[in-house]
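Notes taken during the Thursday session

The instructor put the following on the board and asked us to keep it in front of us for the whole hour. The protein is Urocanate hydratase. We were told not to look anything up and to reason only from what is written here. First, the residues (675 in total):
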Amino acid sequence: MSSLKEICAGLPLDPLPPNRGRDPSVPHAPVRTPNLTPAEERLALRNALRYFPPNLHATLAAEFAQELRQYGHIYMYRFCPALRMRAYPIDQYPCRTRQAASIMLMIMNNLDPAVAQFPQELVTYGGNGQVFSNWAQFWLVFHYLSTMTEEQTLVMYSGHPLGLFPSLPSSPRCVITNGMVIPNYSSREEYEKMFALGITMYGQMTAGSYCYIGPQGIVHGTMLTVLNAGRRYLGSGDLRGRVFVTSGLGGMSGAQAKAAVIAGCVGVIAEVDETPLKKRHEQGWLMEVTSDLSHCIQRIREARKAKLALSLGYHGNIVDLWECLYQEYKKTGELLVDLGSDQTSLHNPFSGGYYPVQLSFRQANQLMKTDPQRFKTLVHESLCRQVEAINKLSDAGMFFWDYGNAFLLEAQRAGAEVEKKGGGATEFKYPSYVQHIMGDIFSLGFGPFRWVCTSGDPADLAETDAIATAVLEEISSTVTERVRQQYSDNIRWIREAGKHKMVVGSQARILYSDQRGRVAIALAINQAIAKGKVLAPVIISRDHHDVSGTDSPFRETSNVYDGSAFCADMAVQNFVGDAFRGATWVALHNGGGVGWGEVINGGFGLVLDGSEETGQRARLMLNWDVSNGVARRCWSGNTNAYETIQRTMENQRQLRVTMPNPVQEEHILDHALQG
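Then, after some discussion, the predicted C-alpha cells were revealed:
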C-alpha cells in the first residue's frame, strides 16, 4: 500500500506500478460509445501518452488502446493508487500550505469508495461526474499541490493540470474549469468524442469542483423538497401516512430513501442495479428491499395505514412500478401514491443514466455498447410508457414534479405527452421542483451551505453543529414568518442529523441558509477555530445548485420568466466574483444536473483557519455569493427576491442594486403593439 508521501511524489514511472486492471470488488461505469474514427483513436492514444516519457510509450500504448476500445475511454487503470482513498486528517498531507492540503482532502473524499459511484473511473456521482479524466492527472495534481506556495495558483483545464502559475497570496490557490466547449460544439455527441480524446470533461457539479460531501447534501435538499411539496400540494408538512414514489438509489439519488424517512413519509424507490440497492441497505439508509411488486404494494398499504416512516427499495424498473400502481388504482379505486418524482440520471440517458423497461439490467448494459441506436429507441419507448402511467395517476390525484434531472426534457424529446399548453420554453405539464417548491426558497436567498471539518474528528463536527444551531436560533427571532419557517426546518435538520448518521466520508454538514445565516455561521466557526474550540481548519462551500451558482433553464433558473433563463451571466459572474473576493478555489462547469450543454454552473471552497483575514474573506465572498443571484432574480420580476434584496441593501450601505419598475397596466403594452 502506498502512502500520502508517495502519492505526492509525482507519477510513479521507475518502476511502473503493476497493471492490476479493474477491481472487481467495486462498481464500474458503463462502457462509453464515442464512435471514434481510426484517426480519432490514434489522436486519443497520442494525447494519453504525452503524460509519460517516450521510453514508456511502447509499454503503455497497447494497454491504453485496449482500454479505449474496451471501455470507450483511457482511464489508465495501471496508475490507480493502492492507497485507500478517503479524507485523511489535514495534518497528514505533506504540503507547504494548509489551503493545498484542504484541496487534497476534498479530492480524496470525492474518490472514496464509500462516497464515489465509480471510484476507479474517477466518477463521483451522476454516472459520469468526473473528478479527473484519468489517473495520471490525479498524480500530477497531488504533486503540484504538495509543492505549492501561497504565491502560486494551480490551473485546471477539464481535469488536466496546466501547471502552477505565480499569483498573489490573496488569489485562489486553484482555478478549475470543466467542459468549457465553444457553444456551437457543445452537443452530447461531440462530448462523447471529446471525452474519449481526453480533451474535456463533464464535472457534474461538486464532482469536478472537489466539493461533494456524499449523499448527505441531497438528503437534506430532498427532505426540504418533500416537506415543502407536502405543504404546497397536500396542505400540510405532516407527511405521516403519505406515499412518495421515485427512482434511483445510485449516486445523489441514493439519498431519497433517508430523506423520505426524515420527512416522515413512506418512500418507495425503484432501482434496477442491485449494487447501489445493497449499498444503501447496508448503510441503513434503506430500511427494506423487495423485488416482488405484490409485496411492494402490500407494504405500501400497511405503512400507509400505520402511518409509518418507511423507506422501501424496489429492485426493478420504475416503469413497472408506476404501471403497477395505476393498475392497482384501476382495480380497487385506491390511489396508493400522493407524491411522485424521478431521479434517474437522465442528463446521461443513453450511457447508463436510464434503463429501459423492456430490457434487464444486464441486457441494457450490453445493448448500449453493441447497438446504441436501438438502445436509444428503447429508452424513448420506455419514457413514453413511464409518462403515460404518471399522467394517469396524476389525473387520479397524485402530485408529480420534475427533480431537475432532465426527466421531462428527455421525455419531451422522446415524444411523451408532457407539453404544457400555452407554456413557455421552460415549462412542461408538470413543474420542476424549482418552479413550484425550491424556487421561492432561492429567491429568499436560501440555499445549500456546507462545511467540512478537516481534522476528521467527529467532535469538531458536533461543535460546529452546535455553533450553527445557536446562530440560526438567534437570527430566527428577528425575521419574517416565511423566513422563520425555513430556519425552523434547518434547525430541526441539524439537531437530528447526528441521530440519522448522515456522515459518509468526510466529517461534513449541510444546511439551507440565507445570506445572513451563512455569513454568521462562517464567522462563528472561524472564531471557534481561533479560540481552539475547533481543532483544525474548516472548509466552507456549497452545492452549485444554489441561489447564484447555476444558470439552468430547466432547473435552477426555471422560474425566471423574463426570457433570460437561457443566459449564463449569473453563474459566470459568480465564479469570477468569488475568485477575487477571497475563495481558496473556484470552479466553473458546462453541464451538471440536467446535462451537457444545458447548464453553466460554478462553486467554491474557502478554508477557515481562524485568522482575521479569513473572516474578512468569508464576509465579503459569502455576501456576494448570495446577493448576486437574488439581485438577478429580483430583476427578472420575482417579488420575493425584490423584498429580500431591498432588506439586504438596508443592512449593507455599500450594496446598490438596479431595481426593476414592473409594468402595472397591461393595456399600455396592448395599445403600443396594436399601434
